Amino acid sequence: MCGIVGVTGSDEALKVLLEGLRRLEYRGYDSAGVAIVRADGQHVVKEKGKIAALEDACRGQDLAGSCGIAHTRWATHGAPNRINAHPHTAGPISIVHNGIIENHGALRARLEGKGHAFSSETDSEVLAHLVADFYTGDLVQAVQRALGVVEGAFGIAVTHSDHPEMIVGARKGSPLVVGVGEGVNFLASDVAAVMGHTRQVIYLDDGEMVVLTPGGVHTTTIDNEEITKEIQEITWDLDQIQKGGYQHFMLKEIFEQPQTIRDSFRGRILADSGDVKLGGIELTDWELRNIRRIIILACGTSWHAGLVGEYLLEEYAGIPVEVEYASEFRYRSPIIEPGTLCLAISQSGETIDTLEAMREAKRKGAKVLGITNVVGSTIARETECGVYIHAGPEIGVASTKAFTSQVTILGLLTLLLGRRTLISADRGAQILQELEMIPAKVQRVLDQSEAIRKIAEVYAGHRNCLYLGRGVNFPIALEGALKLKEISYIHAEGYPAAEMKHGPIALIDPEMPVVVIAIKDGSYDKIVGNVQEVRARDGKIIAIVTEGDEEIAALSDHVITIPETTNFWTPLLSVIPLQLLAYHIAVIRGEDVDQPRNLAKAVTVE
Ligand code: AGP
Predict the structure, then answer these.
(1) Are 28 and 76 in contact (CB under 8 A)?
(2) Radius of gyration of the chain (CA)
(3) How far apart, in whole angstroms, are the C-alpha atoms of residue 250 and residue 594?
(4) From the alpha carbon of 602, which atom of ligand 1 is closest?
């Protein structure tokens, strides 16, 4: 999604801005731009396409200066082209904006009536003109007055050539973080953009603004009330967001999973009592025992993790669970009864649909628990209690390690709740012992990457693919299909295996690869039947089976094995081959694995 970088007080503002934009590339974008502000005016360069194109366009231009703002845009209003790219200017003012101004049409008409001329189709340019319209010598006041009349969401950075060392930032619904340096200060939509320069950051909350100069950082509300913000220390390493020798971030992140799963449960297991301690959950035993219903709010891959959570929580903790698409939940009239706990699951912690659904649940009286990866993200900050999944920065747009960490946390949460109801200490201890063996077992699946690549070679040219699973592996079938379509652009669908005969079976022919998760569990015999149904229609079968299983192997074209484990943790193993299969197919097809078309890492617009 769109990214913002700003710097003031640097000898090389342009270099810092371009470097910051590069660190935001993983978020997805279609155009980029930079504005250096000096007393002689705004010096703006914008380009469609990659940062490299912007760098080329900057070469040979007079962009010397110590203060500037930059942006990567992901089109919402207006085509992805140079004119619509940010920064947008209105005379001496330049602005970069993330989010959507909902009343931009009315504002534009009003401003045009007053003589303002617009050059782009964007809602963001309206903001630049609005600030210019209110400006009478005080930039901060002009921004405040402009934000007083806009409706919608924004994270903005604004500069004016009358104040060539000043950046004014403000947020409502779109993240902004201040990087605090010595004689130089930074503003960004994502901490990754500033961490090469400083580890001291301030996260702005909704309704807050900041004025940056080389010598200081001044925070107020948009209504101009003074506020004191805490400076926090970034603990992530810069090299954690580099590729670490892998061809793609996605592959690196798939291979990190033995470690990231371990990081998710480390320090949270009470082995002796078969119990779990989740520091961020400040609920008493009585409150935990009295949770009557759980509603899970999430999107995409996080929603699939939520579905796994539904199986676990209902079966092992005996609590009824509903898993809701966050985007749907917020627009209907959800019923929140006393005793309802909402889980907001989001890797980025910034997904607007999940954030708004969570806010709606809170308004209706639910207790909301956040399960997020990004420390300091909006969802993490707005939930009363929460659990970080500790997967480390996930750069590949297609989520992999965050998924297994989310499932790990949902498993731990199931144990926490189940130990207060249905799960005995012995059973809890067994499940936790099994969890401690999972990282090594994930490694055994990863060791088959080359064999999976060979299977990928066979199917990379196909146009469709079906994924089947039962029980807790049904969400894994959905996740496998999502991974394939996201990065290889092959049409893929996931189904509960038994549903196949109610429709999708009509699609089966020799051109249809069917990935079947056929683990030795309670529904194994039924899955064998489903595999035979595919085989009888000459479909191609890629089976994910438990090590040592000969029966399905005899019926399948290809077999990928996973080590045996308790049904409770099976999804942590069964998803790995599907991530690798999607990855290898996309690479063979020559696709941009880390930044698939039309997708963004954090979807901060509706
Ligand atoms: C995952 O591969 C996708 N890129 C996408 O479905 C993602 O999971 C979804 O947008 C939710 O993101 P979040 O976890 O950051 O809220």
Answers:
(1) no
(2) 25
(3) 6
(4) 15
Q: What is the pLDDT of residue 239?
A: 62
CB environment 545-572: b (16+ within 10 A), e (fewer): bbeebeebeebbebbbbbbebebbbbbb
Cα-to-centroid distance, 388 and ligand 1 (Å)? 16
User: What is the SS3 string spanning 292-323?
Assistant: CEEEEEECHHHHHHHHHHHHHHHHHHCCCEEE
395-401: average pLDDT: 94
Burial group, residue 504, by CB count within 10 angstroms (0-12, 13-18, 19+): middle
Tens-place pLDDT, residues 47-88: 998 899 999 999 999 999 999 999 999 776 777 789 999 999
DSSP code string of 545-600: EETT--HHHHH-SEEEEE----GGGHHHHHHHHHHHHHHHHHHHTT--SSS-TT--
Residue type, 65: G
CA gap 400, 391 in Å, rounded: 10
| Torsion angle, alpha carbons of 371, 373, 378, 382, to 10 | 30
H-only helix segments in 114-239: 124-134, 139-149
Ligand 1 pocket list (CB less than 6 A): 299-302, 346-348, 351, 354, 397-399, 486, 599, 602-603
pLDDT at 501: 85
Residue 298 Cα to ligand 1 midpoint, Å, equals: 9
d(CA 92, CA 86): 15
Q: What is the pTM of this model?
A: 0.77
> What percentage of the chain has pLDDT greater than the value 90?
77
CA–chain centroid gap for 399, Å, is 7
| Closest CA to ligand 1's atom 4 | 398
Q: Distance from the CA of 548 to the center of ligand 1, in angstroms?
A: 34
Helical segments of 182-248, H only: none
N residues, the chain: 606
Q: Cα(402) to centroid of ligand 1, in Å? A: 9
Please identify every residue annotated as catalytic. Answer: 2, 601
130 to 10, 117, 142, 194, 528: CA distances (angstroms): 29, 12, 8, 29, 65
Q: Is the pLDDT of residue 137 over 80?
A: yes
pLDDT at residue 242, rounded to an integer: 66
392-408 mean pLDDT: 94
Can you spell out the DSSP letters for 436-452? HHHHHHHHHHHTTHHHH
Element (H, E) at 35: strand 31-38
| Parallel, antiparallel or unpaired: strands 321-325 and 340-346 | unpaired
Distance of CA 196 to the CA centre of its chain: 22
CA distance 234 to 244: 20
Which atom of ligand 1 is nearest the CA belonging to 599?
Answer: 4
DSSP-derived 3-state class of residue 207: coil
Preceding peptide of 87 cis, ω within 30°: yes
